Amino acid sequence: MCETLSRHREIWDKKKILREIYAAWYRMILGDMKESGHKTVELGAGSGNFKAFKPDVISADIADCEWLDMCFDAHHMPFENNTLGNIVMVDVLHHLADPVRFFNEAYRVLEPQGRLIMLEPYPSLLSRPVYRAVHPEPFLMNMDYFDLKPGRAKQDPWAANQAIPYLVFFKQRRKFEKQFEHQYRIIKRERNSCVLYPASGGFERRALIPDFMIPVFRILELLLKPLRRIMAFRCYVVLEKI
């Protein structure tokens, strides 16, 4: 895993459009974080880029890479109860074997009014066929993560179901709210990234546009905001511990 993440660090340095997209996402995340005397942890920190925007963040991943601060499984976090101000996750939730178990663990370690901030794939009418064509991770839409057998394990940290965020916070939102009504409130639940993100090619493919077109696509992104329900490639969710 560290070999792949190391390659992502090299791509980050070379790919301007990717840096600009993530910089905007990171600024959005920073704006929604709780001001707290307790630490912020980034789960699935991967290539460790968020630390440039928040130097005091604890960068953690299940992969033990030299540029990260900690290595652990998000289902079992090595923190005391009520000791974290924020948990940040970019493209992590859809890799978790048992999201409900994770939400309970996050609730345990977050302080009251602490926040869990997630940015994830979203299967809109436009994005889902594109993801299927260019991305190996599946969308398993028939899963019910609120009815999993206890002790479900993940054999491969890279395994994923990109549908998890959509299922938990959109299709099955009422189940989430019922199960966690005394634990979390949903502060934000948004769709975003209609054109600029897919135009970037992500970490694995070449960008579809030259750098000088980035400002044009930013304007186009704003113009397409009313169509995010059918064109979004991403969703953004902020939970606050009650």
What does this structure look like?
- This protein is an alpha/beta fold and 242 residues long.
- It has a single domain, classed as Rossmann fold, CATH 3.40.50.150.
- The protein is 34% helix and 19% strand.
- It is built from nine helices and seven strands; from the N terminus they run ααββββαβαααβαααβ.
- It has helices at residues 2-14, 16-32, 99-109, 127-134, 164-171, 173-179, 196-200, 214-223, 228-231, and strands spanning 39-43, 58-61, 70-71, 84-90, 110-121, 184-192, 234-241.
- The chain has a seven-stranded mixed β-sheet with strand order 3-2-1-4-5-7-6, with helices on both faces.
- α5 packs across α6 (173-179).
- The longest helix has 17 residues, at 16-32.
- The N and C termini lie far apart (35 Å).
- 36% of the residues are buried.
Please report the total strand number as a whole number.
7
Largest sheet: 7 strands, mixed
The H-level CATH homologous superfamily, spelled out, is Vaccinia Virus protein VP39
- Give the percentage of residues in beta strands: 15-25%
Task: Please mark out the parts with pLDDT under 50 across 5 or more consecutive residues, or reply none.
Answer: none
- Name the overall outline: globular
Work out the helicity level. Answer: 25-40%
- Integer-rounded radius of gyration: 17 Å
CATH class: Alpha Beta
N-C termini distance: 35 Å
H-E string:
HHEEEEHEHHHEHHHE
How many distinct helices? 9
CATH topology value: Rossmann fold
Averaging pLDDT over every residue, what do you get? 95
Order of strands across the biggest sheet?
3-2-1-4-5-7-6
